[in-house]
Design a protein that fits this description.
By secondary structure, this protein is of the alpha/beta class. The protein has one domain: TIM Barrel, CATH 3.20.20.70. 53% of the residues lie in helices and 10% in strands. An 8-stranded parallel sheet has the order 1-8-7-6-5-4-3-2. Helix 2 runs parallel beside helix 5, helix 3 packs parallel to helix 15 and helix 9 packs across helix 15. The radius of gyration is 21 Å and the shape is globular. The chain starts with 7 loop residues before the first helix and ends in a 14-residue tail after the last helix. The model has no long low-confidence stretch (mean pLDDT 95).
Length: 368
């Protein structure tokens, strides 16, 4: 570790063009991440619910205020207002970075309602609204058929997007092409795109997860350790294509399952978005901070995955899926189901404030 680096992640950001984000909008976690070189943060329904439970003491009074001040709002409206406020709170912590880098870094990623995954207009309208919440918002849009349409449209309107629910090379390319169309339309009308910073996530850990599920479901016998390389292989291939074609979208690696999901991307001009616990593991590890992005995945691993698992071929080949097939891809379905369920769980948390369970006796404050 260099003398000026506070940690391994900080060293990475000092020595390489690889940025790192905090995969959470938690105040405590984001503060740690920024101190160690992070230049962005992200959220989704699962993350927001986890943060709320962890930092309930910071939000209890505000939730009561929102309920009191908006007597006609439904639990869904209150839930999304809470998501907005938690996201803006995180964005404020990143604002100095945003100003320093003139919009290219320092953004908080806020996710559109996952239940809208089939509704391009609904996604676009919510994305434009989220973009207005703070100057340094970046809006997550799922890489579904409707999501690709929405990505082009909101990019045209000046919204920086972070494509999510994305696991494959063809999805990443579809995102980059949609962003290019949106930027070209915008620039043709003389509108600036100078401060826009579009991102495309590949959820490398969820790519691995799906290969493991598919292999088990279909009775495919394969060396278990090979399955931990599926997401890395897809990311490295997508990265090569992005570099060759000069796409203006940056790739982002997310959904960590092991430290290879960090170490293998060091040196790339991309983003690693790491949960707090994985940041701690990386900083405490004995992994050398050195360039590995250009190191190819073992050809035997790729060939075995390619020959044995049809859904790896779909994820790895540039033309492995058409846009209209994205919605039915196993990893997409599993992730959407999880995100939608998390949104409902978050709503249930708000419901408990609005309609406390009458079967449970309220805790009484005992005076000393």
């Amino acid at each position: 570790m260099t003398a000026t680096a506070k940690s391994k992640l900080h060293q990475m950001t000092l020595e390489f063009p690889t940025d790192y984000w905090n995969d959470s909008c938690s105040v405590e976690e984001l503060t740690y991440a920024i101190d160690n070189g992070a230049v962005g943060a992200t959220s989704n329904p699962t993350i927001v619910h986890m943060v709320l439970k962890k930092e309930m003491h910071l939000w209890t009074e505000r939730i009561h205020e929102l309920i009191r001040d908006n007597p006609t709002w439904s639990e869904t409206e209150l839930t999304w207002k809470l998501v907005e406020e938690m996201s803006v709170h995180g964005a404020n912590l990143l604002r100095p970075i945003f100003d320093k880098y003139q919009g290219k870094r320092g953004r908080l990623s806020i996710q559109t309602n996952p239940a809208l995954y089939r509704n391009a207009q609904g996604i676009a309208e919510q994305a434009v609204h989220f973009d207005s919440l703070a100057p340094n918002m970046i809006v997550k849009i799922p890489v579904t058929q409707a999501g690709i349409e929405a990505i082009e449209e909101v990019t045209f309107h000046g919204v920086s997007i972070n494509a999510t629910v994305s696991f494959s090379v063809p999805q990443a390319i579809a995102v980059a092409e949609a962003v290019e169309r949106g930027l070209n339309r915008r620039e043709a009308e003389g509108k600036s795109s100078e401060q826009m910073a579009p991102v495309c996530t590949i959820m490398v850990g969820r790519t691995d997860d799906w290969m493991k599920v598919a292999a088990k479901r279909d009775g495919i016998e394969i060396e278990p350790s090979y399955l931990d390389w599926a997401g890395i292989a897809c990311m490295k291939k997508a990265y090569q294509i992005f570099q060759q074609r000069g796409y203006r979208t940056r790739l982002l690696a997310a959904a960590y399952r092991h430290l290879g999901h960090w170490a293998e991307f060091i040196g790339g001009e991309l983003i690693v978005s790491m949960p707090y616990e994985w940041q701690l593991k990386a900083n405490a590890s004995d992994i050398e901070v050195k360039e590995r992005m250009s190191h190819a995945v073992d050809s035997q691993i790729i060939q075995t995955l390619y020959n044995e698992i049809p859904d790896f071929r779909r994820a790895y080949d540039e033309d492995g899926m058409k846009v209209e097939e994205f919605d039915e891809y196993g990893a997409t379905v599993r992730t959407l189901r999880g995100f939608i369920a998390s949104a409902h769980e978050l709503t249930a948390e708000v419901r408990d404030f609005m309609l406390p369970n009458p079967d449970v006796r309220k805790t009484e404050t005992v005076k000393a």
